[in-house]
Amino acid sequence: MLKPYNREEILALVDDNDKVIGTVARGAGTRRHLDGKLHRAAVVLIANGNDKILLQKRAGNGLDFSVGGHFAYNEDYLDGAVRETGEELGVTVPREEFTRIAKFRADLITEGLEVHHFMTLFEVRKNFKIEDFKIDKGEVDWVRYYTIDEIKDVIKGDPLHSPPGFHKGLEIYLSARGFL
User: What's 4's DSSP letter?
Assistant: First the structure.
């Protein structure tokens, strides 16, 4: 069963330059993702010493970043990444261990659903074992490490079965790390 998110959490609405132009309660709107309003998300890829990348199977969804989520208007991208890592994976990672890889825009319009995000992608390089994670079963079904070749196969898969920005974020990451 999916854990309900806090519908009252206040998120930042942003313009095309990622400047805050307003706020909105997370539960606002008649469709998921704030009726298509542009907002922010922080995402994290955890890489171990063997260049394997941790991905999660999102509860009620497909494969996703190691960690990902919205964050409150008074948090920055790094604050959101740190908090979401603790919430979703049950591990504490100090701020200084997050490396910013890129900020990008992800837009998806399908079956009447509009999703528009600015996302900042962070990397954490740490040799976590799977058993180190205390995953939040309300958000995450399971996690596992993928090789770079397996990640490339994931990118070729059907993007509609994964959250918006996931495939684009993987491509950006692999390119930034010299794997593409």
Answer: P
Categorize the per-residue pLDDT at 2 as very low, low, confident or very high, splitting at 50, 70 and 90: very low
Q: Are 170 and 106 in contact (CB under 8 A)?
A: no
pLDDT of residue 130: 97
Q: Is the pTM of this model over 0.85?
A: yes
What are the structural domain ranges in the chain?
10-176
pLDDT, residue 59, reads: 84
Q: Which of 17, 19, 18, 12 is nearest to 34 (CA)?
A: 12
Give the helix/strand (H/E) hosting 179. Answer: none
Amino acid identity of 51?
Answer: D
- Of 3.90.180.10, 1.10.10.10, 3.40.50.920, 3.90.79.10, the CATH number of 10-176 is 3.90.79.10
Average pLDDT (173-179) is 94
**Cβ contacts of 166-171, under 8 Å, gap ≥ 24:** 166/62, 166/63, 166/64, 166/65, 168/104, 168/106, 169/43, 169/45, 169/65, 169/104, 169/106, 169/119, 169/121
